[in-house]
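For the sake of transparency, this paper describes our internal protein records without simplification. The record that follows is passed on verbatim for readers who wish to inspect the format:
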Amino acid sequence: MTTKAIFSIALFILTYIILLILAICLTILCIAGAIAIIAAKPMFATVALGIGLGSLGLFIIAFLFKFIFKKHKIDRTHLTEITKTDEPKLFQFIEEITIETETHFPNKIYLSSDVNACVFYDSSFWSMFFPIKKNLQIGLGLVNTITEQEFKAILAHEFGHFSQRSMKVGSYVYNVNQVIFNMLYDNESFDKMIQKWASTSGYFAIFVMLSLKIIKGIQWILKKMYDYINLNYLALSREMEFHADEVAANVAGYPPLKHSLLRMDLADHSYNSVLNFYSEKISENIKSENIYKEQSYVMSFLGKESDLTFKNNLPEVTELDLSKYNKSKLNIKDQWASHPSVEERILNIEKTNIIKENPNNIPAILLFNNPELIQTKLTEKLFSQIEYTDKITSFKMDDFKSEYVDNYEKNSFNKIFNGYYDNKNPNYFDVDTIDTSQKSETFESLFDKEKIDMVYDFIALENDKNTLTDISKNNFQIKTFDYDGQKFKANEAQGITTRLEEEIENLKAKITENDIKIYSYFYQQTPNKDYREALNLKYRNFFKFDAAFNLKIEMYSNLLNAAHFFHVVTPLEQIKSNLTEFKKVEKEFKKEISDVLHQEIYKPELTEPIKENFEKYLAEDWVYFSNQNYLDNEMEILFTAMNDYNYVLSKGYFQTKKDLLNFKNKLFENNHLLSNVVS
């Protein structure tokens, strides 16, 4: 893999040299042609043509060399450097691992706030030729959610990278990518220069257009080179991950690395859940005292909600938990992934079968001198980046727990349904035609494992069908794929899609049948006529909202497509044409927002800031573009309204569905209460 990656870099260098030689030859020919034109008949027109022709080659040369003048600044403001004086126990722990892995101690050690650990280095032009001093970055959100033995395994993995000479290839790839990126996308100043030159004279404009055509051809070649280099390097990166995992297994045993890998997603989700919680508190000028204590609480809470077992006071995530609802039969090797999947990594380290006796399972956070001090310090640094409008207050832990649980319950469905509705909605059926006189099944059988599997089989089939459709349309550049353990060529995707469509329809019919039985069950559970009518009405309301929601989403999708040109460089005349088309779609969007403001179902979600955003948007006929420039303020008003609309619409759907499920839960509880009284 290293050989392939180095060969691809060498090929790029050769390609670049050839392009440069051709550009120099073109420049010489252009200058020679310019001199000949002017010498043949000296006059204004020939001088202008000569200068324009001469500039053609010079622009190509400038384009190929402009990356040299680009400065790259590395932002480390989010990192906190620590020293041996600060954390002697942690440094001793790290030093012992470097001895075991036979690698050099990191050049510098930094703390970040997130759930991560990585090796990085100062990659510059000179790093391609001289030894690279590697730094270690440790995420406090990671250390906060693992044991000391797991931390040892993770650091041993990172030091496994220290030992890899193939890491130097990364420095070459980084610099090559910087060069290619600069020539493909970082062209704002170059475009301004060339357009300014073109506007000087119509003679110059002809040659500017020619140079842009040539540059587009060069960019096409560079794009192909970028894909080729990075596909080879990413393949190498995946192999390097496997190797580093084996180093970790040898140092700490494979179980600690396995457990930390399986828990990583939960730890990251818990951390981000706390961040999202406080993002909603910015307008109230509220921040966290210690985000890491809150992360630990959320991880424990979610672990209990998911019925996970706990060991060393940490939730134990299994491979089954990880793939519980992933029933896809489609397997496509992701060539653009820098890391193997967690499942692949676990299979690889289990082969080592290395288990260490007496692992140290105390919390890894205790390696810090004063864990709470470092947690609050990084919390303070994290929140210092936010601009508050008034005096800041900190949330106490008890307040956080209470409000987080309250929010969780508001935004999730009752556990009695066993996750049946978590990722599906009740399928449509005509409530008035259902025969509710037939004896219904038991509650347990309606929401048992077989029914849950049926739902997730359907979701997997739908996702597989969509992916296979993309493959058949060549949206994925792959040659082969595996489906249900069998290898297929890309051109066979359409045939499998047709087969899946039949399976999807059959499964959908079975799920609808179960949804009807669920309705019948709840209808029969209450002899109360008012309750039965209320159940009937809530189903009707949900199906009505569901149908309207699909139309609204279609309209919103059309609006997004119509607004796409705002995000890309577009010729002036095309912008005017696009705006005319956008205005047609926007007219319907404005009507939808006006309706949302007056509908009862959305009122709980219409906070004062959202209402103000909607009213500001509706108050004017915004133009968005004037005097050859986009109007940033008006664009912000538009996109804020679009984002708010999507949010309010989604929340309205969720609340309509939750209202139906809560009512069914109420019927269930009432029936059980009545049964207990009778018995």
Notes: Residues 673-679 have pLDDT under 50 and may be disordered.
